[in-house]
Amino acid sequence: MKRFAELIKQLDSTNKTNEKVGALTEYFLNAPDPDKLWTIAILSHRRPKRPVNTTLLREWATELSHIPLWLFEESYHIVGDLAETIALIVPSSKGKTDKSLSEFIAEIIELRELPESAKKAYLHENWLSLNYYERFVFNKIITGGFRIGVSQKLMTRALSKATGIDEDILAYKLMGSWTPPTTTFQQLILEEHESDYLSKPYPFYLAYAVEDDFQEQLGDIQDWSFEHKWDGIRAQVIIRNDEVFVWSRGEELVTDKYPEFQKFLEVVPNGTVLDGEILPFPEGRIGDFNQLQTRIGRKNVSKSLLQKIPVILTAYDLLEWNGEDIRSCPFAERRKLLEQLISKVNSKENHLYLSGSMQFETWEAAASERERAREKRSEGLMIKRKDSPYLVGRKKGDWWKWKTNPFTIDAVLTYAMRGHGRRANLFTDYTFGLWHEGQLVTFAKAYSGLTDAELKEVDAWIKKNTLERFGPVRSVTPFHVFEIAFEGIAKSSRHKSGVATRFPRILRWRKDKPIEEANTLQDLKNLIPE
Amino acid sequence: MTKPLLVFNSKGIYCKQADVYIDAWRPVEKCIVTHGHSDHSRRGHKQYITHHNNIPIIKHRLGDITVSGKEWGETFTINGVTFSLHPAGHIVASSQVRVEYKGEVWVFTGDYKIENDGLSTPYEPIKCHTFITECTFGLPAFKWEPQDDVFNEINGWWARNKDEGRTSLLFGYSLGKAQRLLKHLDTSIGKIYTHGAVEQMTQVLREHYDLPPTELITANTKKEDILGNIVVAPPSAQGSSLMRKIGPNVTASASGWMTFRGARRRRALDRGFVLSDHADWDGLLQAVKETGCEKVIATHGYTEIFSRYLREEMALDARTESTQYEAEQNEAESKKEEGAS
Ligand SMILES: [Zn+2]
To answer: A100, A130, A395, B194: least buried by Cβ within 10 Å?
Structure first.
């Protein structure tokens, strides 16, 4: 455990990606194999099942710390993370255990089956014998959700450095349903399999947002091809050797999440790589981001969800054809091949659509198409140079995104919550309401958008105008109106208002507006595209 | 019921009987000042009273002011009210203020910490009836490690950075924290460079305190000379032109707020050292007990939580009062008012 806790401390002690990779590489070179395997498992979200529920964890930590439960809860609200709160609050210790990470995890797995009294004794004993970082890590393994600024990708890079195995191949090896009890480091990572090479994707090419005077910059409009900009998940779908592989933009292999794409095998030949957008497609039309959310989070998708919210791939580029890398061909040629391919596909049947391309004579014509983006369920337009190759990463010049202006609405500040960490004593997280039958109904939370000076001013005002306190949350006198901007809007049964908004943020403080002039919930609903 | 000896009004903490303020935040006639941080020693009072070692500090910040200096424990009486200053251990020359009238004793702590930092005169508990205490870190999540352990970590970090060919950039307030850092940095590792605000304040303090040599970074300082050494700078210097001047570097902050993992990450620092000039949870409780007080007034920090604990768990008459001291914004926050808290 010492070595693993030291690794986490090192990862925590730097903001530089290279140093994180360095620390991980060092770890993968030196740790014993069973620990390496568990580290990979934890960092790829394969933790052991939670052996104790959080209510009990809180109670037992409180007991050990000799403080009242309410004080634990207040502290938890301010710290913001349960594992960290427990690690901070229980009496300190210098750390005197020699058990390894995998030994600890074996105990934690067994713990699940033990009676409550034994669980409590086990936790107390270990909290008192681990130092701060070990305690924090120990708690994290128990509570799950190891978010320490290390993505699976970063871990894969380090593993690649330590083993000399290609990153994309490691990503493939790490996918699927393995767990440490069912495999070994040798089997999972080191042994070679021919199939490892099949899934290898190409690096994504990413667009830049257009700049102010872009029409002049881009020159002759005839050199450019236009498409709608879809609001889904950027993905590459690879068909090789009668297998389908789906990679998402973070370059993560997500094949299992989208079983629909197995259908491609029927219509797309081997040796093909498609670039496009995964979109929700309920009832035979493009749905909204809120529906896609319900798919993203699940590792195993249920039948009913598959039926309710199926997905499609809207393809816009072809990177490999007949087993050949065609990225250096001009975009227009790649498009032609793509269009030929998809023209033979029954889109509805096979979940594969073409993102239609458009040509415009004038920028005014393009602008008016952009105005229609919301009707088409897009976020604006993509502008791609017809003779451009498919580049690597975010490169200026050939691909541009021209997004629609955000939605805006004037809402009333109704609740405020303390920030976390450095802002723990400042009210920085706000909830906003809209009028509905004479009441303010909560519709969104927003954290950002105010200047530091405004934040301080609002904070001071909140402290003087608190109506009620609920833990870290305060309700305040309805008085201030803010203009809230957001990128998308959809119906939602999970929200009290019946509406979900995407990326809400504060655009400005409308000191000029009395609350009576704030918008109504109906005004908001009118923005939902039909 | 008799009138309280000290009240909180719109200008500061006020003793009506003596017509004197303590750490007033609006200009007043006569003000007792606990220490040199800008939220406690404001501009514009007609007459200042403070510990004599604090005089050069506030004169440096506030210019030509009328000020009289006192010794620790020296009493002075105004209209029957007896005042005296006692060490608070927060930063150099920081005081608590004891106020006594007709046998009733109140103490206002200003900012304080319990641990001896090796530079400030250490905190002394003062018996009183009513204890007005800060509680910047009044939450059980805050627990300080002994200073020696923290400095071992800091010096180890510096030595490692030096081995890797990088300069260490350590942020701490220019008054107080910076000198505490200077005092305990291991100068066998390398040289200590300073940012302007830190250098100026350090020069002021050298008159009364023994501090290691420092070198100010100027336009003429060469990158190669700084390399591998340590630079002490105020938090406001993060992201400033100073950063570009010093080449490959590793950044860290020394503050109580570094307890939270999120605080360090949000400030985009490589490293956070938990080192505070305020009392931690146990320190606050110890202080309250040692005064033997019946009443507690919590002024800045997690006041509501702390006073509820005192009421419910220690059966004390505890309440909160709001002030304009800056614990609410917390150290890492107030970039503009360098020197606050
Ligand atoms: Zn202070």
So the answer is: A395
Inter-chain CB proximity B270 and A15 less than 8 Å:
yes
Residues of B in contact with A458 (CB under 8 A): none
Instruction: Provide the phi-psi class of A341: left if phi over 0, else alpha when psi is between -120 and 50, else beta.
Output: alpha
Residue type present at position A137: V
Q: Are residues B240 and B300 in the same domain?
A: no
3-class SS at B189?
A: coil
To which residue do tokens 């005004």 refer?
A523
Place of tokens 């065609």: A326
pTM over the 0.90 mark: no
With CB atoms and an 8 Å threshold, state whether B141 touches A85.
yes
Chain-centroid distance of CA A516 in Å reads: 37
Tokens of residue A437, six digits:
């039958």
- Confidence category of residue A251, pLDDT binned at 50, 70, 90: low
DSSP, residue by residue, A313-354:
EEEEEEEEETTEE-TTS-HHHHHHHHHHHHHTS-HHHHTEEE
The residue range of the domain holding B319 is 7-141+277-336
Residues forming a β-bridge with B78: B81
Task: Tell me the two tokens of residue B231.
Answer: 């630079």
Last residue of a domain, one of B219, B249, B273: B273
Higher per-residue pLDDT: A393 or A235: A235
Residues of chain B with pLDDT under 50: 1, 327-341
Which residue, among A528, A446, A530, has the nearest Cα to A490 in the 3D structure?
A528
Q: Could you tell me which residues come within 8 angstroms of residue A436 by beta carbon, excluding any fewer than 6 positions away?
A: A497, A520, A521, A522
Per mean pLDDT, which range of A105-114, A264-273, B318-327 is the poorest?
B318-327
Question: What is the Cα–Cα distance from A365 to A382, expressed in whole angstroms?
Answer: 14
Residues of chain A contacting residue B322, judged by C-beta atoms under 8 Å apart: 463
pLDDT digits (tens, 9 = 90+) for A38-51: 999 988 878 888 89
Q: How many CB pairs under 8 A join A and B?
A: 85
How far, in Å, CA of A520 to CA of A509, rounded?
Answer: 18
A51-78 pLDDT, tens digit per residue, is 999 999 999 999 999 999 999 999 998 8
CB A410 within 8 A of CB A400: no
Closest CA to A357 of A298, A320, A390, A316: A316
CATH superfamily of A407-525: Nucleic acid-binding proteins (2.40.50.140)
- If asked whether residues B137 and B158 sit together in one domain, one would say no
Distance B332 CA to ligand 1 centre (A): 13
- Say if strands B167-171 and B249-254 run parallel, antiparallel, or are unpaired: parallel
| CATH class, range A205-403 | alpha beta
Helices (H), A146-213: 152-163, 167-174, 185
As given in the structure block, the two tokens for residue A104 are: 């600890």
- Cβ–Cβ below 8 Å for B329 and A16: no
Neighbour-count burial of A16, counting CB atoms closer than 10 A to its CB (0-12 exposed, 13-18 middle, 19+ buried): exposed
A2-143, which class in CATH? mainly alpha
A59: Cβ contacts below 8 Å, ≥ 6 apart = A69
Among residues B207, B211, B171, which one has the least CA distance to residue B54? Answer: B207
Q: Are A399 and A205 in contact (CB under 8 A)?
A: yes
Distance A284 CA to ligand 1 centre (A): 64
Q: What is the full DSSP assignment across A253-292? A: E-GGG-GGGGGHHHHS-SSEEEEEEEEE-GGGS---HHHH
CB within 8 A of B213, min separation 6: which ones?
B187, B192
- Nearest partner of B139 among A13, A425, A95, A522, judged by Cα: A425
